[in-house]
Amino acid sequence: MVMTLDLPKFTYETVQLSPNEYKSGVPPVWCPGCGDYGVLASFLKAISELRIPREQLAIVSGIGCSSRFPAFVEAYGFHGTHGRALPIAAGIKLARPDLIVVTVGGDGDAFSIGMGHVPHAIRRNIDITYIVMDNEIYGLTKGQPSPTSPLGLEKKASPYGTLERPINPLQMVLAAGATWVGRGFSSKPKELTDLIKAAIQHKGFSFLQVISPCVTYNDTYDHFKSITKPLPPEHDPHNRMSALRYALDEHSLYLGLFYEETGVDTLEDRLTALNARVATPNYGVQDVMRKYMR
Ligand SMILES: Cc1ncc(C[n+]2csc(CCOP(=O)(O)OP(=O)(O)O)c2C)c(N)n1
Ligand code: SF4
Ligand SMILES: [Mg+2]
User: Domain residue spans in the chain?
Assistant: First the structure.
């Protein structure tokens, strides 16, 4: 079946590129065994299966090992500043609504310095996908605890163990009203590819947390292999409370589509509607300003 996306200007029937043909030729510099390799492989497969033209895709990141991601994909790319990937991506999407915009980065980028931007992208429901590669550590800067590090984690920068409880990213984005929420694992490539495809196809803001271990500073492979499991079939992904219950489970780390809500206007929809209103009689800028000049 030919895949088309619900975008105003493009259908992608003519593009047929293999995952390899989306590689930029820049070799990834991640440590051997880093989970981010698995995320990149699934991502390349996903965009190949969605038949996305290279010139229709923009990938935006912040700073971190995971944020090197745009360099490895043959598409538009922007390696931004730490924690500011979302506003940059939002600007690109508003200027070029025909582009598919994907934001990528790490748990530090998303939930430390970048935390202020996440709920606002969610409430705007801007049509971008956010993939957070969560290794529960700052990898690039050599292993400081991040907001998702577990309480008591002992590392060089926290020799007595961290004193702060971790945030739960899915709890946070579900509570903030995100219209698409999923969780994948870099060691489950098939499931991860499907989640990335679904996140990109969602109209609105989609948030995908990917467990992606850092073998060098926080090797959590065995731990995550033992606690991850697929969401059970009785979970209804249209039920936010059910999604929250599974996100809050303390014994298992569930993988899959937690929540999806369709039919919600995006920021772009609202701006288009506003532009149409401004063009109607008595609603131009001068008319509106007059109200405030009395
Ligand atoms: C304004 C600013 N503050 C701090 C840094 C240093 N810094 C670079 S990356 C990073 C954290 C990276 O962690 P994460 O986002 O989890 O990415 P990872 O390397 O784990 O993939 C920090 C603190 C910076 N580059 N810019
Ligand atoms: S330091 Fe960790 S996160 Fe960074 S490339 Fe190496 S394994 Fe990956
Ligand atoms: Mg990290």
Answer: 19-263, 265-294
Q: What is the value of pTM for the model shown?
A: 0.95
Looking at all shown ligands, the one closest to residue 61's CA atom is 1
Dist. CA 135 → ligand 1 center (Å):
12
- Walking along the chain (294 residues) 10 residues at a time, the average pLDDT comes out as 45 84 98 98 97 97 98 98 98 96 98 98 98 98 98 96 98 98 98 98 98 98 97 98 97 97 96 92 87 84
Ligand 3 ion local residues (Cβ < 5 A): 106-108, 135
Which ligand is nearest the CA of 134, by number? 3
Name residues contacting ligand 2 (CB within 6 A). Answer: 30-31, 34, 36, 65, 135, 139-140, 214-217
Q: Checking DSSP bridges between strand 129-134 and strand 206-211, what pairing results, if any?
A: parallel
Q: Which residues of 87-112 are buried (b: 16+ CB within 10 A; e: fewer)?
A: bbbbebbeeebebbbbbbbbbbbbbb
- Distance of alpha carbon 261 from alpha carbon 204, whole angstroms: 9
The percent of the chain in helix, strand and coil, each rounded to the nearest 5, is: 40, 20, 45
The hierarchical CATH code for the domain 19-263 is: 3.40.50.970
- Residue 269 CA to ligand 3 center (angstroms) comes to 33
